């Protein structure tokens, strides 16, 4: 099987500002034309694959395809994404009564997206020496006092719903998708790192890696509107920078389908 090393394109404010790739593929893989400013693929399969997997890295900066325009106003009393999540959870509880307690505890008992996410993450990451109640206190303190994170968790969940074909609703990302969980857990660790609480940030990094198989250094810089599909085996190092509106697709066995 051929292998590849990819350096993601950084996308900032809808503009591609860095594009590098190093690859070692068999001749059956599609190639890029260096004369094209958009990194246009010679292989016609890209046209078909991008309808399913819109890529905002490695040669395409068209971030509006198949996506919903979202404006996050944290000062407004309205939160349409949170309203949708509650409606979805209520509907799912009616369809699957066996999950009603889980859905109530995870979503319907909370008054905002932040607190629901805190509950979900704390219960995913807890262990005998790092209790769920301790994690909830840490996560709640960070999220409720960081407007950047509050904005990012909404733009990220919108990215999952818009750009991940396997994510049918906002609540699916919030409750079940470890790519979303690991990304939001990283955001808390990153905030702690910037506060000087580096030991706690590294402890969270270790636990995130153990639970989700995603290793993101808390000093790494990651933008908003990110889709992290599965993420199993993903490593993002201390000096890495990932821009806004980037999709990281799982492509171990079927690289061509994402190009």
Order of helices and strands: EEHHHHHHHHHEEEEEE
CATH fold category name of the largest domain: serine acetyltransferase, domain 1
What is the total tally of β strands? Answer: 8
Helix content: 40-55%
Q: Tell me the β content.
A: 5-15%
Structural domain count:
2
- Just name the CATH architecture of the largest domain: Orthogonal Bundle
Number of helices: 9
Protein name: Serine acetyltransferase 2 isoform X1
Organism: Iris pallida
InterPro entries: Ser_AcTrfase_N, Ser_AcTrfase_N_sf, Trimer_LpxA-like_sf
Biased composition (Low complexity): 22-41
List key phrases describing it:
disordered C terminus; disordered N terminus; 2 domains; two-stranded parallel sheet; about 260 residues
What is this entry, summarized?
With 259 residues, this protein is an alpha/beta fold. It contains nine helices and eight strands.
Would you give an account of this structure?
The protein is α/β, with parallel strands linked by helices and about 260 residues long. The protein has 2 domains: about 5-50, no CATH class; about 80-259, serine acetyltransferase, domain 1 (Orthogonal Bundle), CATH 1.10.3130. About 45% of the residues lie in helices and about 10% in strands. It has helices spanning about 45-50, 80-95, 100-110, 115-125, 130-145, 145-165, 170-175, 180-195, 200-210, and strands at about 5-10, 15-25, 215, 220, 225-230, 235, 240, 245-250. The protein starts with a strand and ends in an 11-residue tail after the last strand.
